[in-house]
Amino acid sequence: MSRSSHKPSTRLGHLGRSPQRWLGAVNTPVVRTSTIQFESVRDVELAEAGQYPGLSYGLHGVPTVTDFQAALAELEGGHAALAVPSGLTATTLPLLALLVPGDHILVTDAVYGPTRRFCNLHLARLGIDVTYYDPLVGGDIAALFRPTTKLVFCESPGSLTFEVQDIPAIARVAHERGALVVIDNSWATPLYFRSFEHGVDVSVHAATKYIGGHSDVLLGAIVANETAYPKLFRLWTDLGVTASPDDCFLGLRGLRTLAVRLERQQASAMTIAAWLRGRPEVAEVLYPALPGARGHELWKRDFVGASALFGVILQPATAERVAAMLDDLELFGMGFSWGGYESLVIPIHPERARSATTWQAAGPALRIAIGLEDPADLIADLEAGFVRLRG
Ligand SMILES: *Cc1c(COP(=O)(O)O)cnc(C)c1O
Predict the structure, then answer these.
(1) Residue-number span of the structural domain to which 92 is assigned
(2) What tens digit of pLDDT does each residue of 116-126 get?
(3) I need a surface site. Which of 31, 123, 274, 310 has the fewest CB within 10 A?
């Protein structure tokens, strides 16, 4: 039903479900079970040997979970996928699974903050050396390789600062040296950055964000090629970190509308980002989809579209004035997430999480996530905020 010749939005309606298996029900139900009952001692023995053809235990993936996994693997063009309880589990599990003491890893300096903390505290504790690199390094990353470098961790565009990475150049260097490439692809989703076509080995997602799309689920997914998958599957099984069937149901439901939500959110984000760029209160808009913005050329070369999360650097302003602007916004909420139907804004401090590069900006910075509201209403809300910003 979901042959890959179909367009992505068509496939989103059909992948990860099989009505004939469920009395015709179009959606895979939430299968809540810990225990699978076997018909015979022979089946029990097959299951113990890992040779039972069906499901053997709830922890290893009930149909709601395996359908979500299959849908994501097919959508992104990976070999297989694993569902995990959060985006953070999705970013950290591959590091634990693919590295051993003595290994060295290269991590983008614009990596999601909690992923950085995991590297600093836990990889270091396990005797794995971490080097942060300039997200814009491209093929020059070769100079940072050591004989022990086993993995390059990318995130593009970067968290908070939206640098677009030259993934094909980085992947070429990594593969020449026998290292794997992992990308946090949460911003673009499987629809807008085709990871495996650009040389990535493992693509991880905070499905909490656009895939879930409704700010009502914490969920992660790891999509891998055939080389990386076995080690990931082994650790996923041995840690017992499957996602719950309820959460995977919401992940599958989110996938059905992902293309249409992203299209609308992208269009609104373009309108609002372009408007912001023309405002006297704004020094720079960090949105690679915007012509002339930093990273635009690379984004145009490698991405199919843009999601609706971007940064704004304001002209110099005091913290009090920025708070006055944000505190009284009517439609934009303040919160640590994005990808839902509702617009959000948050002050950001990239300088607090940089070690390979330094963050220099004219004034304070904001991160804006555009939801599904009418862009004219969102612009009016921001415009009133700018009046408060000016004081
Ligand atoms: C939110 C986020 C995560 C983590 O997702 P959770 O589901 O909140 O754990 C990972 N990477 C990026 C880029 C994110 O923005």
Answers:
(1) 3-30+61-256
(2) 999 999 999 99
(3) 274
